[in-house]
């Protein structure tokens, strides 16, 4: 039976909740202007380099929050496919690239090439979402194909798959504050592909979060097994409580008798 909701996807639920809650808090406290980045003046004049680390924390308008929440709900299947440990490892190992590359790309390359016209990077984890979307594109197969044709027999046609509609919401998210949102989406997609092809430096694709809970459960299981074996050994050697003295003598006598039997 297919799992519904966020079953077996606790980290996806946490991520979606954080996107919605942080955006609401930023709106209520009127602190949304702390998250988006304008290269000039935020970085060039005010030296607010902390924005490089905080611009992905929340979205600044309700439309982007809606598109991001619906996309994350759709991408929960990645966590079910990989497991929570690998899913969390992916988010952590790609976070430095999805966080730092978009603003540095705009500040150091694209803004000079456009003579200062490209100066704005909108807030929100669009890069993270598109890094996950690259995994969805590569790992989740489509169920069927269908063709959309014009009414004329010789007119143009378009071949689509069952996954085609899944990209409509992310596309609207990428175009919501063009071109800044599109740059973040493109960087996230490239980072996701690089992770899948193990091109990220430092073996990021093979790194995993330490499985502390699994190791603790395994240690408890072996500890219980050891105690059970010690109890069975004590019972077999006759050292149970109440028969300690007689059992020890019988055990020593049996050991001596076994030695003589082995000699003959």
TrEMBL record:
This is Peptidase S54 rhomboid domain-containing protein. Residues 228-248 are annotated as: Disordered. Keywords: Membrane, Transmembrane, Transmembrane helix. GO terms for molecular function: serine-type endopeptidase activity. It comes from Myriangium duriaei CBS 260.36. It is a multi-pass membrane protein. It comes from the Eukaryota. The chain crosses the membrane at residues 15-36, 57-75, 87-110, 122-144, 167-191. GO terms for cellular component: membrane. It is found in: Membrane.
């Amino acid at each position: 039976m297919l799992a519904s909701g966020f079953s077996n996807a606790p980290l996806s639920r946490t991520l979606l909740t954080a996107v919605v809650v942080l955006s609401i808090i930023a709106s209520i406290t009127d602190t949304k202007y702390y998250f988006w980045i304008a290269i000039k003046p935020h970085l060039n004049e005010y030296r607010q380099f902390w924005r490089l680390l905080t611009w992905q924390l929340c979205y600044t308008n309700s439309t982007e929050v809606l598109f991001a929440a619906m996309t994350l709900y759709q991408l929960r299947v990645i966590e079910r496919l990989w497991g929570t440990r690998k899913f969390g490892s992916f988010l952590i190992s790609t976070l430095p690239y999805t966080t730092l590359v978009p603003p540095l790309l705009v500040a150091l390359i694209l803004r000079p090439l456009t003579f200062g016209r490209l100066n704005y990077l909108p807030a929100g984890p669009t890069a993270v979402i598109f890094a996950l979307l690259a995994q969805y594109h590569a790992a989740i197969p489509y169920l069927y194909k269908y063709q959309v044709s014009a009414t004329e027999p010789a007119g143009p046609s378009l071949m689509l798959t069952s996954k085609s509609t899944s990209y409509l919401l992310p596309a609207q998210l990428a175009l919501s504050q063009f071109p800044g949102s599109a740059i973040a989406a493109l960087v996230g997609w490239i980072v996701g592909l690089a992770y899948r092809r193990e091109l990220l430096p430092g073996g990021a694709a093979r790194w995993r979060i330490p499985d502390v809970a699994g190791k603790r459960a395994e240690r408890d299981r072996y500890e219980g097994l050891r105690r059970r074996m010690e109890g069975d050994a004590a019972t077999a050697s006759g050292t149970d409580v109440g028969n300690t003295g007689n059992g020890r003598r019988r055990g020593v006598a049996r050991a001596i008798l076994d030695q003589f039997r082995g000699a003959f």
